[in-house]
Fold this sequence. Notes:
Elements: H1 33-53, H2 71-81, H3 87-103, H4 108-125, H5 130-144, H6 150-163, H7 166-179, H8 187-196, H9 200-213, H10 217-229, H11 233-245, H12 250-266, H13 270-283, H14 288-300, H15 304-317, H16 321-333, H17 337-356, H18 362-372, H19 375-388, H20 392-404, H21 408-419, H22 430-442, H23 446-459, H24 467-478
Helix pairs in contact: 1-11, 2-3, 2-4, 3-4, 4-5, 4-6, 5-6, 6-7, 6-8, 7-8, 8-9, 9-10, 10-11, 11-12, 12-13, 12-14, 13-14, 14-15, 14-16, 15-16, 16-17, 17-18, 18-19, 18-20, 19-20, 20-21, 20-22, 21-22, 22-23, 22-24, 23-24
InterPro entries: TPR-like_helical_dom_sf, TPR_rpt
TPR repeats: 254-287
Transmembrane segments: 39-57
Amino acid sequence: MEIEERQPVPAGSGRAAPPGPRPEGPSGPRRSPLARRSLIGAVAGCAVLGGALVLLLPPDRGGAPRGAPGPVARAVSAVGAGAPVALPDLAALIDDREARVRARPRDDAAWAVLGAAYTERARRTAAVAYYPKAEKALRTSLRVRPGGNAAALEGLASLAVARGDFRTAKRWGEAASELAPKRWTAYPALVDAYTGLGDHKAADRALGRLLALRPGPAARAVAARVYRDRGRREDAAAAVSDAAAGAAAPSEQAAFLTQGGDLAWERGDRQEALDHYRAAVDADPGAYDALAGQGRALAALGRTSEALRAYRAALDGRPAPRYALELGELYDRLGLGAEARAQYDLLRELVRRDRAAGVDDEPVLGLFEADHGDPGAAVRGLRAEWRRQPGIAVADALGWALHRAGNDKEALGFAVRATDAEHGGGVRSALYAYHRGQIERDLGLSGPARRHLTEALRINPYFSLPLVPAAQEALVALGEPPAGGPPEDSGETEGAEGSAGSDDPEGSGDAAGTPGAAGPPGAAEASGPAPSPGSPGPAAR
């Protein structure tokens, strides 16, 4: 097992967190009532939650005096709870456990904690070289103690979730829960794994078990994700507010505030989202998702200079493909083509880097290729992804890629799947509604197209810099519905879901072509330069 050598910190390593852009004026950040309640409640909840979480792992005997935990003890507590760790504390924990396994190479618990810490470092900073190190450490723990090692099994499940490998996460998570069914720490990874595989009934069962075993802040945050996916936005907001109020540490509180900001953004509340994201960065300067969220909200507010700074800070601390895509689209919107192309090149480079470390970025890459690159390549990659893990996000991305490649009939089946509550697509997503509306428009289904494009703008009028104007233009082109109630609204899309393989829970998803084929038939493989993302698509042209 190779132990990390101490080296000078490169840019983007996450050890030093760049500050996010600050609001102009002397008054400081404007916080929403939810964010203020979260900040007050977090102080009240710290001692109790922190004391409980540390029981999940062996006590750390070399730290600070009792009642004043040092960085290693704080990090052990958070890692054991599956909670975010402050980056300086995480570095201290890694140093400590590396020293421990050098001195005691058969300490299975130390190896398991080290593997979990490596996973957290990679997840927080996108320093993806830590993912293979995490896997080696966790497998070493299993080799040292092959039986009864629930901590290592849970660590491998969490590692797989962080890599976007939901089948592997399911396998390890189920092994951990079977070994120790009353350990709550296996269930968050299982919820994410089942969700990524499109098995929403199993996700609900895992969430129920988690809430029964540990109804605390971490469980509430997981519940908020599930409620959001089911379209229960008010329940999701309440759950994440409760989670933030009970957070044990600033880094955990920052993660929950970021989650609250995402919910506010998805319902189109730009200022509320910005308030949450700023509160998150105030709590933890290493909250890079919140920095990217600030960029998103600031761009929607028309404060583009601040938005650019926020995105650059986020990319510097956590070079993630999604950030590069969003920054590239902001540059495109500003007419800065060369800068946009540089971000798109960076995105491809980051995807290659991630793939070498076992990270699955296919949904983000597919949407990028569909809108800015090669739609045929997007279809091929996303079709293979759908066979591996047929989640709702993959259904949406594959449907859009098929549309951009000119195969609207098959595309509609996937778009319906992504927005069908019966099969888990109940999330109130402006992007998903927009994708479905444009596909329906190109199929001549004017009534459903008008309905879904209007819904997209109602859910979030700012959901995408390039796509909001496209939705508005499409609605103008569609015009008003005929007086007296249009026959076009009489259910033209019924039955379309079958083309997405809706009866195939394992996700072959190729009913319009050959099941298991590497790509779509005929015109669906059309490649070459993609039309601009704002255009209505090949059929409309």
